[in-house]
Amino acid sequence: MPFVGLGLHFLIAIFFAIHVIRTGQQMYWLIILFSFPVLGSIVYFVAIYLPNSRLERGARQAVAIAAKALDPTRELREARAAFDYTPTAQNQMRLAAALLGAGQAEEAATNYEACLKGPFASDLDIRWGAARAWLASGRHSQAASQLQAIRTQDANFRAEEIALALGRALAGAGRQEEARAEFDSALQRFGSFEARAEYAIWAVTNGDRPLAERLDAEIQQSMARWNRHTRELNHATLQRLRAAFAAGRG
């Protein structure tokens, strides 16, 4: 029986080792995983795998959706009041995030830009927020530059989200071949619904109908196993996907 347990520990370590290679993590993780298969696997799961997993993103999305449904403007009201009362950098970051969540991308961008001029200029979450605000407000080249800079600073930071946002930013800036390469790489690395959907939206928008239809067929096959909760979490992306296909038929 001890051998069975030992084998399971190594199987888990191998699973995480594959994740290290597929997602481009630092190679020292391989040494840690195989030198200390039990402890190394636990540390890798907590430090790398979970923060970048769809499970954690789904949980965050679910909480955000529930809170917004109960009181759609509460976080923005509280964030604005906190900043008006105490205009610290931390409160301005909170206000910028609340504005972006409320769809006020231009004002969010203005607040993120102010944060980028202060002591938190190199903070990855601030830079990510700024990039998202610029992307939402149509400043695609600026968003692309920021996303590439984030990746240079830390290739593991929100790797899938950065890749998909960068693909959209490059496409919006007219750099279509670079966008295609970014989406294709994201699909190969992550294989998620989000990667397929964003790639399909890009494909149908740029006239690559065969690629778009192949990706859409894969999405439909995956959706057959979804529950209502999963559909709700992905509702916004699905709406964009359907709108892109409808425009492509027009």
From TrEMBL:
Protein keywords: Membrane, Transmembrane, Transmembrane helix
UniProt keyword Ribosomal protein present: no
Protein name as annotated: Tetratricopeptide repeat protein
InterPro entries documented for this protein: TPR-like_helical_dom_sf, UCP030959_TPR_rpt-cont
Residue stretches spanning the membrane: 27-50
A Pfam family: TPR_19
